[in-house]
Input
Amino acid sequence: APCQVQGHKGLLAGLGDTETQQTTLHPLVGRVFVHTLDHETFLHLPEHVAVPPTVPVTYHAHLQGHPDLPRWLRYTQRSPHHPGFLYGTPTPEDRGQQVIEVIAYNRDSFDTTRQKLLLLIEDPEGPPLPYQAEFLVRSHDVEEVLPSSPASRFLTASAGLWEPGELQLLNITSALDRGGRVPLPIEGRKEGVYIKVGSASPFSSCLKMVASPDSHARCAQGQPPLLSCYDTLAPHFRVDWCNVSLVDKSVPEPADQVPTPGDGILEHDPSCSPTKATARDFLTDALVTLLVPLLVALLLTLLLAYVMCCRREGRLKRDLATSDIQMVHHCTIRGNTEELRQMAASREVPRPLSTLPMFNVRTGERLPPQVDSAQVPLILDQH
Output
């Protein structure tokens, strides 16, 4: 047990502050590039200590001096317990030197270490590969075909569908990067991966038949495509034969005709001479544009003034149209309101009898304060 504890402590300290390592790699233009970020490379452990698979390590890679990777390079990692991968296919515009900084994080001890990858992107040697075919493999994720063993197995299996010649991997892309959907968490469901293969040998008749318009028509109807040869990729790779695309670059594309720049001056054409414009007086148009809106606004103003001022009924007509009972009720309320306002303005007015204590409403008598109110009858006539 003490040895295990010491080994675990040494493992947690493995991602400590160390000098930045630098590794030189040589990607080739037009060829797939795969670099594995494994735990053994970043965990500096003694020789007698093995790397357990339970240590979670994640990675962050970016171009030196930039927050993200270059456009041709991608990074993927299935989980902190699996290795990470840097993969992609450089283009001729990416030729030269690029420095990739990789930072590894130990999720147990929160230690970090840094590594630099010096990428020297060069042109490949050998003949060009004008015949290119891209397959959609439904049975794998992108992390499962990036290692060298599955990639070599795929090249060996696809050689049976090609004319004799050397095959090379040109590109590997996840189906999710092509607009695919994330599969349901069901056993056997994979994301899918696009694998592009190139060769200097022409396509076989089998591949040409798969990519023919007749096969595409059968796929559109839900039927299997035309496949005249044996599927050498099965059962290790389940290929969607309805998504096979062939590119033939052996025939050069016609160059676009570059237009010849001229002097910018059109030649004189008598049939296209400009016509003379006749003189026109805009005074009438200006008067109509200004006077018509003003007259309409003036008419609306007069109509509104007539409705607001000349169509009022008046107080006398309103009082005559009101019933006498309603007028008396209104005058009574108004008079009481005025009286209350006057009483509120002058506090010297005696208090109303209804507000005094022990006041009999019917007789108006005031009982002396010494009398017990409980013995006083409610109706004095009954006493």
